Task: structure prediction
Amino acid sequence: MTRTNPRNIVARGLAAILLAACAALPLQASAAATVDYSDLWFNPSEAGWGANVIQQDDTLFVTLFVYGTSSQPTWYVASSVQRVGTGQIFSGTLYRTRGPYFGGAFTPGAVEVTPVGTLTFTASRSSAATLAYSVDGVPVSKSVVRQTWGTENIAGSYLGAFSGTWSNCGAGRDGYQENIATFQVSQDGIAIQIREDGANYTCNYVGSYAQSGRMGTIAGGGICSDGINQTFSASDVQMTRAAIGMQVVFGQAGACRFTGRMGAVRRGPP
Result:
């Protein structure tokens, strides 16, 4: 690969990142503005209660499973928790619901929905947030994280693309870049290896994968056929049956840095 070709350099870096997650599928349209917070959230030091969050566009549907004054299981729902401004804060009305016994006939008229307060979900990063709500005047504020009970395996062969911006790399390299490449990813537990093949270069990377709920992160480094070493990190790694996507950052000597996103589809017949 020619070091002076910014598109190839990006691909290289992309590889690094892809190593991170092995190629990524483009994020949802709204994902450019907000992370997908859909997951089961809890406080690790307070096992036994939690919040189920489902996101569509900029609206969260939050279900709380907590305990009432009698220590009996109680649940509340905030069905329209809207994004506030352009940040990562969502707020809406919290409700108490009642309905017919699940073991008998469902009677729609027996369903009761009563507003009891408000709920606000404030994300400090993609895998951590503050959940604040009030029920009948009783305020609650908890730090929560995504609950994890399994680790994704992102191994496979991918055809991907990336886009992003180089900075602090010097004239002729700084600015927006994009490229495509194929990626071969292998994974053994948290250890990941990735080979990236571009038009006239190859890159090989090694890294570590960590899971946080539905999201993954990767940290590692590697070297390309032109001899350039680089580090990389990937966040918001999400995988489906068809593809994978993530946010990525990688760096080279000095302060040269690429920040962007990557996506890739699995190769081969479905």
